[in-house]
Amino acid sequence: MTRRSSTADPCRMTDTCRHPCAEGTTRREFGLIIGALALFGLAGDAVAGAVTLTTGTQSGSDRAYPIPPADGVTIDRDAQVILVRASGHMYAFALSCPHQNAAVKWVAQGNRFQCTKHDSRYQVDGVHTAGRATRNLDRYPIRRVDNVVHVDVSRVFRSDADLAGWTAASLPLP
Question: CA 65, CA 96: separation in Å to the nearest integer?
Fold first, then answer.
């Protein structure tokens, strides 16, 4: 595996990426770790806030995902979408930091997202809390149909340009 130059595209979240966002763990290794924790009955507490990888079903500009049964972070690398279920809400974020489009990673210990390039930090709902970025994570429009969440990846809401749209790009869950 080779590390890419940070001057071009610092991280596109591919399997060959060795950037901090990948943290050196492949999908297979991640699955083996989760499986081992579950075998020992530790999966619930030990990996709270762990990242799940998925690929949504595409229909036009929409990506469809099953609604996760519990709070957590799900990443669709192909679509560059982060799905978050937290405290009775779902959000869909762009995978890139709004500062210079580097990938953001989930930091479970801090219950937050962090930019892999300049360390900007974001709450679980995408609100910017520290770092060079000057706005919140960009949100995609999101809607629910039965037990499936649909994300319109052709549009994005920036909190600095359309705060009302950005705020509305949230899905309340029971």
Answer: 20
Place of tokens 């099953």: 66
**CB-based contacts of 160-169 (< 8 A; 24+ apart in sequence):** 160/134, 160/135, 165/141, 166/136, 166/138, 166/139, 169/91, 169/92, 169/139, 169/140, 169/141, 169/142
Rg, the chain, Cα only: 16
Q: Note the pLDDT tens digit of each residue in 158-174.
A: 999 999 999 999 999 87
The tally of domains found in the chain comes to 1
Taking only the tens place, the pLDDT of each residue in 28-40 is: 444 444 343 333 3
Domain-embedded: residue 137 = yes
By residue range, what is the domain housing residue 106? 51-172
The identity of residue 110, as a single letter, is G
Taking the C-alpha atoms of residue 39 and residue 67, their distance in angstroms, rounded to an integer, is 25
Q: Are strands 51-53 and 72-76 parallel, antiparallel or unpaired?
A: parallel
Q: Is residue 26 part of a domain?
A: no
DSSP string, 53-121: E--PEEETTEEEEEPPSSSEEEEETTTTEEEEEETTEEEEEESB-TTT-PBEEEEGGGTEEEETTT--E
CA angle 54, 57, 61 (to 5 degrees): 120
The span from the CA of 20 to the CA of 155, in Å, is 28
